[in-house]
Predict the 3D structure of the following.
Amino acid sequence: MISDGTQAQAVFAALADPTRRAVLRSVASGEASTATELAAHLPVSRQAVAKHLALLERARLVDAQRAGREVRFQATPGPLGEAIEWMESVGTQWDERLAALARAIDKP
Amino acid sequence: MISDGTQAQAVFAALADPTRRAVLRSVASGEASTATELAAHLPVSRQAVAKHLALLERARLVDAQRAGREVRFQATPGPLGEAIEWMESVGTQWDERLAALARAIDKP
DNA sequence: GTAGCATGCAACCGATCAGTTGCACGACGA
DNA sequence: TCGTCGTGCAACTGATCGGTTGCATGCTAC
């Protein structure tokens, strides 16, 4: 295991799974926000969705809020920035398009 | 398994492993370009590096060129763009900073 | 209060993955 | 030509992961 001490690690790992990306997309678009709702839209069980949500939460890509007996999730954008910055730091060496991206991020 | 039919899948999976990111970073920076050289910089065996390179090559993040008895690798930037586009397509829903990113990508 | 619904916890299975060791093949140089 | 160095292939191990089922807990509404 080689660590470069970044949050990007967790983000890339979280985004590597298709089901998890589908979950994140649904949460981000607001079309579903509880584990049960999400499971209804996907061909996997509620527990599978719950595991994905737990992982996404550890990666700080979603945020959980208890509301009575249900738990609603919402997406949080922060960590994506760090992941993109990592790509940029690698990509700048060969791709000018990525360098332009870095500029767009650093001065919003 | 839920597929949204993108190359981003392979890119995120490739970037999820720390050792693989270290390999990609070394290749991109030009500090090493063969499996043996890379293994000398990392605390893993040559075969482990070779496997990572094979996976990175399948994700089209690196390109292999045979030169005599050795194989030199170089990074190719293309697939990172698609991965960033995916992040943007999700992120735009909650983060204006990501939307600015999308604009920067769409009209270079 | 009681039935129903959403969640949480735990155990389990099959597959994939990161990493290793060992050996065979092919190109280069003395 | 022969040793050496870089690579490729194969088998194996241990760990992690995605997914499932079963059951317990807790809020809510009637």
